[in-house]
Design brief:
Elements lengths: L1 H39 L8 H35 L2 H7 L4 H40 L8 E4 L2 E8 L2 E11 L2 E10 L5 E11 L4 E13 L2 E13 L4 H8 L7 H6 L1 H6 L4 H30 L7 H27 L5 H24 L2
Antiparallel strand pairs: 1-2, 2-3, 3-4, 4-5, 5-6, 6-7
């Protein structure tokens, strides 16, 4: 009998979680679809392109919202078994509030690790595909930049002329081993610029140890400069913002390839922040389940579902803003970034511990 009840709890709880995820996915798909249709309305893309891109982008949003999805799913499940008297039946068979809480919270904790190890690498690849596909139809210069194992690649338009820039790697405010191909308005190559490094702190780049090959009458004329200035649409801040996209970096990459990613130019602070944010996810799911269980079991009376939802919604907003505020303090160096990421987890741990002690007495 014990194993049957245990399986009942796990099966129905996970069913509630996945139903909630499916509902959120549907809303997210519809809302994002409007944005994609607006983006593609003047392109020659087929009518299914916005739908396909929306369907592969929304899962990454689901992972971001997962703590709150788990919170409402747990509230929904506990309220349901409480109102239909299943909770009393569970207690008759020896399942205390504490035991039910531990089963549900542990399930959420394990679900968090499954998502990190299995689902997150898939969604990261999907977001990367999403960005590459949109860049092919982009009318805005901001989309014409990519960063991969071959280095940094930029395509930009300057005074109706096209420029392709490739660099071996970024290194703080500099690009190392830079090559620039410049084309005229008819897409013909006019010159090539080779530089040992380029300071890109501002949009006026300072190139060092430069070789410029100008094409005239199908002959390259070579000139050398110790220092050379060029204007660009990009500076360090803009490039750093564009390729430091947390959604394209998977948990597996961060744990197995972090050193290699730093060597090719990824910001170490960004990677550290992303890794700890991911590591905190299973603990966040555990605590959000705990918090929902405490709220649902703090009283034995039946709950009005709408009022209970409003209470949960207010609590979710407070947690979201506290988490966002803590992260903002970390990014502005008011507190260490790792402490900023884990502070909401520590705060929730304190409140849920007190709450669990209370429901255990009932």
């Amino acid at each position: 009998m014990s194993s049957i009840i245990f399986n009942y709890l796990i099966r129905n709880y996970l069913k509630t979680v996945f139903v909630t995820i499916f509902i959120i996915y549907g809303f997210g798909l519809i809302l994002n679809l409007f944005e994609e249709i607006e983006f593609f309305k003047e392109s020659d893309a087929n009518i299914f392109k916005p739908l396909i891109l929306s369907s592969i982008f929304v899962p990454s949003l689901i992972i971001k919202l997962l703590p709150f999805i788990i919170f409402f799913s747990s509230m929904w499940f506990i309220t349901k078994i409480k109102n239909n008297k299943d909770l009393l039946i569970l207690k008759v068979h020896g399942y205390s509030n504490l035991k039910i809480f531990l089963i549900l919270a542990t399930t959420s904790f394990l679900l968090g690790w499954i998502i990190l190890v299995i689902v997150n690498p898939i969604t990261s690849s999907m977001v990367m595909f999403y960005e590459k596909t949109k860049s092919q139809y982009a009318r805005d210069i901001e989309h014409l930049i990519t960063f991969n194992k071959n280095g940094l690649w930029i395509k930009e338009n300057i005074d109706q002329k096209e420029r392709i820039i490739t660099a071996e790697k970024p290194e703080k405010f500099e690009l190392i081993n830079l090559t620039i191909f410049q084309f005229d308005s008819s897409k013909k190559l006019t010159n090539k610029i080779f530089a040992e490094s380029a300071n890109i702190k501002t949009k006026k780049w300072i190139l060092k140890n430069v070789i410029i090959s100008n094409l005239k009458n199908e002959i390259f004329i070579v000139n050398k400069f110790d220092e050379y200035l060029i204007d660009s649409n990009y500076d360090y801040a803009k490039i750093n913002t564009l390729f430091n996209n947390a959604d394209t970096v998977s948990f597996i990459d961060l744990t197995l390839n972090k050193k290699e990613m730093i060597e090719i130019g990824y910001n170490e602070t960004f990677l550290k922040e992303n890794l700890h944010s991911m590591l905190s996810l299973p603990f966040f799911l555990f605590l959000m389940t705990a918090l929902a269980t405490v709220l649902a079991m703090v009283s034995l009376r039946r709950y009005d579902g709408f009022k209970f939802f409003i209470i949960g919604f207010i609590i979710s907003i407070l947690i979201y803003y506290f988490k966002d505020f803590s992260l903002a303090l970390g990014k502005t160096d008011r507190i260490p970034i790792i402490l900023a990421i884990w502070s909401p987890v520590l705060a929730l741990s304190f409140f849920t511990f007190i709450g669990v002690l209370q429901i255990n007495e009932k």
